[in-house]
Structure formats: C-alpha cells, structure tokens
Amino acid sequence: MDDVKDILESKPKKARKKPVKKGPTKKELQIMELANNTVLPDHYITVWTESDLDELCEWLSKLSKLGKVAIDTETMGLDWWKDEIVGISFYAPHRGYYIPLKHKDHVEEGAGEVGVDYVKCLDKTLVASRLKPLLERYSLKTIWHNYCFDWCALKKWLGIVMPPAYFDTIEGQSLLDENEDKQLKPLAEKYLRVPADTYSKIFGSRTTFDTVPILLNPATRTGNLSAYYATKDTELTYKLAEFQEKHLNMPHLSKIKSLMFNISMPFLDIVKEATYDGVRTDVEYLVGEVSPKLHAGLDELEAKIKAVIGDINLNSPAQLAPVFYDKLQLPKMNKKKPNSTDKKTMAKLMTGLRIFTADLEGTLKRIEAGEQSDEIYYAKLFKDNLPYFLKPDMYDKAREYFKMCLDLLQNITTYRKQSKLTSAFADSLPTKLDDDRIHPNFKPSHAVTWRMSCANPNFQNLPSKDGGMIRRAFIADEGRLLASIDASQQELRWLAHLSKDPVLLDAFATGKDIHSITATSIYNRLHPEKQVTYEDFQAYRGLIDKFTDADGGVDSSKITNADIATLYDEKLIVEPTEEAFVEAVDFGKYLDFIRSAKAKATNFSVVYGTTQMGLADNLLVTAEAAEGYINAFYDTYKGVARWMTVERKKILKTKFAESYGGKKRRLYPEIGLWERDKSYRHWDKKLQRGELGSHWALDSAYRQGINSLIQTPSAYQIKKASIDMQPLLKELDCKIILWVHDEQILDVPENIGMDNLRRIADVLCNTIQLDCGMKSDIEVGRRWSQKMSDDEVDSLREGDFSEC
C-alpha cells in the first residue's frame, strides 16, 4: 500500500523533448541573400593556402621598399583584449588580400576545393611567423583607420608588434574637418563617392564576423561576403588616406600637415602602448571594499527615499515625474519640459525649497516688497509655479512639508550621482578584467577641441573628490609607483598668454589667486558700499582655517587678544572686540563662498564659452546677476575683452578659429546660418531701426571659436609634451599610462626620486614657452590619488638611478 501511495504521490517524469532545429533568422536570410548578390572583385584575393600566403608575403616584401599598404583587422567584437581576431586584410593599388583566421564552419579536413567547398583557415601560428618579419619592418608605411585598436589586436592575438604607423584616417579627418563623423563608411561615401553601409546596418548588432558567409561560387564570384567586406574596408581606408594626404599637401594647409605628422601620429604611437599596457586594477579592493561601501550607501539612500515616495525606479524620469508633480505637488519650473526631473530642474527646485524652509514668512514679505536679488528671483519663480496658494494658516505645515521635500530631493540627487559612479566603475570594471588590468579606449582626437577623451571606462568622468575611493583602485605594479604630473591652471594660463592681459600675467608672475581676483571684483560690484582690496579679500579668507571648527562654525576658543589686536591694526575690523573678530571670520566665509560658488564658475564660463543663461542656470541666479558676474570679469581683465573682440572679427571674416599650432575650429554651419538669416527682409528693417541684436548662431560660433583658441592649445601642449618626454621617460624606465584632462599619470620605478620626477615635469612646463610660464604639481603614490611626501619618495631611492 505504501508503495502504491509513493507511486501516486511521486511526480511523473517529463518526457524528453526532441530538440527542434531552428531555421535561419530574418537577418541571417538577409545576409545570405546579400552574399549571393555580392561579386568579389578579381583583385580581392582570399588567402586559404600556404601558396596564397607566399604570394601575399612576396607582395608585402616589395611594398616595404616601394610603397604604402592599408591594414585592417576583423575581430569577434569591439574589445580587442577579449574578442579574438577573425581575419586580417591588406590593400595597396591595385590588389587586396584577406586572411581568414577563424570561422564557425572551419574544418581540419574537407572534400573539394578549400574556400569553395569547405572552410579551412590557415594556422594562426604559421600566419604570424610569416607576417611578423615583414610587418615589423620600419620601412613599411602602414595606413589605418583606428590604428590603436588594430595594433593592439595584432599584438594580442598574433604577437606582431607593428612599428609606428604612417597614417591614420581618423586623425587626418579630425584635422581636416573636426565636425565630420569619424566613421569610415560615412567618410568614404562623402569624399570618395563610394556607397558603403556600416557593419551594424549590414550585419546587425548580434552577428559576429566569424559567421559571415565566406565560401565563393567560382562561376559568379559571389558568396564570399567576408573577404569582400574586409578588403573593401581596407581599400576605402587607403583611398581615404590618399584623399586626405592630397589636401594636407596643399600649401595653405602646411600647418595642418605639420600637426598630422609631427603631433598626431607620434602621439598615437604613445597612446597605443598605453592602451595595450593598461592600468593595473585592484579587483579585490573594488569588489571587497569599494562596491560594498557604495552599495550600502545606495541602499540606505534608497530606503530613505522609498519610505517617503514608495517603491519606484529611482533612475526612471517617467516614474519620478508623477511623484514630483502629482503626488508632492512641486512647482513645474522648467518651461520647455514641465515634467522634467533633470539635474538643472532639480537644482532649481532645491533652491526654492531651501529658501522657503529657512524663512517662509520673511521670504514672502520680500517677494511682496519687490526685492531684486538672486534669492528672491528663485523664490518668486518657485512660489508662482506652485499649484496652490500659500495661506497664512498653512505656513507651519508648508514649512515642514518643504523641509521634507528638500531632504527628499537632496537624497535623490546624491543617489543619482553615486549610482552612476557605482554602475560605471565599481560594478562594471571587475567584469571587464581578464588580466587584472583595464585597457581604456583612448580617443585622442574625437573631441572637436582636439582634447583627449576616453571610453570603457571614461576616466574623464571620474571626479577627484567623489571618485577618490574608486581612483585608489588603480594601482602600480610591484616595485613601481604612479606619478601624477599636471599642467596647473592650464586654460587660464593660455588665456593670459594669448590675451596678454596685464592683470592675469601679473597674477601668475606674483602667485596671486585668479579666482580670488575675480571674486573681489564680483563682491565689489555687489556691495559698492563696502569695497575690499584683493589683499583684504585674501586676509579675511585666511581667517577661516585658523578660527573655525570641523563643522565650519567660528571657534571662539581659538581667538586670542593678540589676534584681535593684529586684525584691528590691519584695519580689518573697526573695533578691537571678540564680536568684531567673529564677524570678520564670518565675512571671510562669505567671501570664500563668492570665490568658490561664483567667481570660479565665472572664470571658466569665459574659457568654456558658457552663455549668460548657462551661467545663470549653473549658479542658480538671475540672468541679470550672471551678466553682472561676466561684466565684472571683463572689467577686471580688460585685455581679455580686447583680445576676444579681435578674435571675433577674425572668426566672422574667415568662418573658423585658428589656434596656436595651426589647428582650426571650423564654424561654417553657424556663421552660414547667421548669414542666411541676415539676408531676410525683416533683418534689414530691424537693422534700420537699430533693433538688431545678437544672433544665436553667431553667438554660438563666437563662443565655440574662443573656447577652441584656449582648449586646443591646451590639448596641443599635452600631446607635444607627451612626445617630448619620451627620451627622458625611456632613460628613467617610465611610461605614460593615462591622460585625464590636464593630468598625465605615469608608471615609474619606485626608486625614481623626486629630482627625476621634477625633470619630467620640467619637460611639460617648457614644451611651449608661455608668457606667464607653466607650473606643474606632482603627486606620487602606490595608488592613484594617494600622495606620498617628497621625503617618502626619496627614501625609496637606492644608489645611482642611472644604473637601474
């Protein structure tokens, strides 16, 4: 009976289903149809046999003496470290070769003709051994489109270490027209008049190159889509390089040509080494310490937030908007996007909430009185957009409610920032590491200003303050250190050099703080009744560190009678009392706030070409206030204003801005739009009435042009310094591994000593002789962002370094 019960209660075994053979997908059918309709040109040769390889090697041997060759690799994906090489293609007039190295249909033995009846790729070891001595010849001029990627793939998968490249069409395009797409196919279509679809358009995002049809129908020369696609890419690269070089050889582009061959290509050679070497990453620290801390902080924030608004996706604007504007009844302060929850809208909301939480009744009275100030401007904007009226009997509850909303929005803002950092670095980095090293995808010329950028990961987005814990995950190898050498205040120094402004030049010569000079001017404009000098401004700020506690409050216990007497003698207080001294410290805190919150942003708004409204939004002030700050800047640095006037005239005349070194920032689209609008009939009428103001497109051209005149020389300086450093770096056994804004991170031996690091920094400072000079700060540690003292660095030095 028990046996029967057991049988009845036991679950019946599921019958095994026979595997259903899936047919080809729609995309696979499309690819097969394309292959059957694509004719492989006669001069495209697929290397299937050793005899074919002999022919290729003989061809390459001749080219190394006489000409140039374009080379491209095909890989399983976009990560050269993980994605295996599938094939290599070569092209020089009028012949192209493709060597398949990996294919899903590969067999060791097959019947019939290889490449026609079956797929058998040549052994990689054989191919590498034959190609290596030919490709590593310095006499061979090689042409590439994305040299760094292909160089790294060849070294990683075949052990071929290519010599410096002759030409990279991405670099050529960035110099000839930085506004254009850098992808090969759009460039070929525009300049070579050759129709060419991108890989993703032809094959889709899921098709790997080892699955692309490769067998040839000899009768029709169709079917071998792999060789056609790969070799055509290489042919397009060669012809695009010819096109670009033809223009670079034009007399009026001699400076651009010099940049290409003396800066871009030599710098690219340094970048590909840094890409391949990568940065050692402390995975245990990331996984065991950084990630848990960041996630614990996120979990805590998430719990606080969801306790107020319920269980929603905090990274979803679509889910946050109804909470903000329907449930919490917050005012809609973004006119263009009323339901926006973006960073700027959040900042405006928090400003309004902060003002009303601090003094609700007083703020309402100031609004009624018509007070004109930044604070009241945002308070009125907040009040006018509330979906309800604030009545006196609501004040107590409203104050409490606003405080709750303020805390909520602050937590959401912090959550967003920490969530991005956690996702981009703490969570994703460990999954990208095979060898405990991260290999960033550097983009030396993708930015229109020629600045270095980076992806996977984007080190430029890793803040030094909030991202400090993550920065410490990047470490030196055993017996090595990481040295950070930067170009201090690089953009402002270039502004001083180019504008010849006497105030800026004097500030750098005498060691004055630029931001404090600007802040003094802003303060004096805001408070004409109580003017301060730069020296007084700095003296008041100097009180903060000496006489405040850890929370920023004034610590009266630190104040002595001697301190009070000194301040009184310096006429920084009107009477020798402790109360006056405390007021002076608070005044110093206010001045420091103007420096950090207003002056610094104003200085960089000029450098980066931020609009008046952009500065107003960043600082959460009125447009009039932002205009006042900018005017304070120009009143202080009159030489800058004069220089910009001259440069704007040049930009309007030539339609481009030419920076130090000859790099151009082309502004034809913006100025063309202005000229088109200017030709309209209503424009002439406005001109006659004297109503013609600025035009947004022309203003944009001016801002971008002026910005490039500062940013591009800064990029030029870093690239040239990297090149100039190479002999000394080799002598000292050092190498550059990262570029982050104006900072270079070097891998150095631990016994290098500070004197040798200063020698390296001197190269950076003297690469270009600026009127105001260049200063460099050096930080050294076993981890990035950790700083050892000079004595600690020197204590690691043993014996004569030249013997190491």
TrEMBL record:
Tell me the segments the record calls region Disordered.
1-22
Q: What is its EC number?
A: 2.7.7.7
Compositional bias of kind Basic and acidic residues: 1-12
Q: Which UniProt keywords apply?
A: DNA replication, Exonuclease, Hydrolase, Nuclease
Annotated signal sequence range: none
Q: Does the keyword Heme apply?
A: no
Question: Known Pfam families for this protein?
Answer: DNA_pol_A, DNA_pol_A_exo1
Q: Name one GO molecular function term.
A: 3'-5' exonuclease activity
Q: Which GO terms describe its biological process?
A: DNA-templated DNA replication; double-strand break repair
The organism's superkingdom is given as: Bacteria
Catalyses which reaction(s): DNA(n) + a 2'-deoxyribonucleoside 5'-triphosphate = DNA(n+1) + diphosphate
Name the top EC class. Answer: transferase
Basic residues compositional bias, start-end: 13-22
Q: Where is the DNA-directed DNA polymerase family A palm domain?
A: 467-752
Q: Report the PANTHER family cross-referenced here.
A: DNA POLYMERASE I, DNA POLYMERASE NU
Give the family per the record: Belongs to the DNA polymerase type-A family.
Instruction: State the protein's name.
Output: DNA polymerase I
UniProt organism field: Anaerovirgula multivorans
